[in-house]
């Protein structure tokens, strides 16, 4: 059995930063995870990146197809290429396509989906040895970003 979440009642909608690319997702992902690998960390601008694994036919680009650009990562740990698909206008990564299984799945950034971080909570973490484990008690917390 896979770790599927409950299927949502309506397709979920998502967009890049500039909303030039808009997409919808049919049904539940096969998995939702946070990954701390070097690629994900660099791309997320933090220690990890949260993504949901969908079959290609579950992901529909509603508009902005012409804005989609692809960067192919070859220095992967699996040895198989991975396509990073991003918006050429705002630079936002939309999903990656691991070629290990012939490109059948899209690994979609859940933060791009409306309420995605709560509707698609992650259930697994990968490369957990690369977590920074900064002590929460050492972090001063603000509701907004003061002074910037
Ligand atoms: Zn964009
Ligand atoms: Zn990763």
From TrEMBL:
InterPro entries named in the record: CENP-V/GFA, Mss4-like_sf
Pfam families xrefs: GFA
Coiled-coil spans in chain: none
UniProt keyword Lipid metabolism, yes or no: no
Molecular function in Gene Ontology: carbon-sulfur lyase activity; metal ion binding
The UniProt record lists the keyword Cytoplasm: no
Keywords: Lyase, Metal-binding, Zinc
Domain CENP-V/GFA: 12-123
Domain of life: Eukaryota
TM region positions: none
Family, as annotated: Belongs to the Gfa family.
Protein name: CENP-V/GFA domain-containing protein
Organism: Aspergillus nanangensis
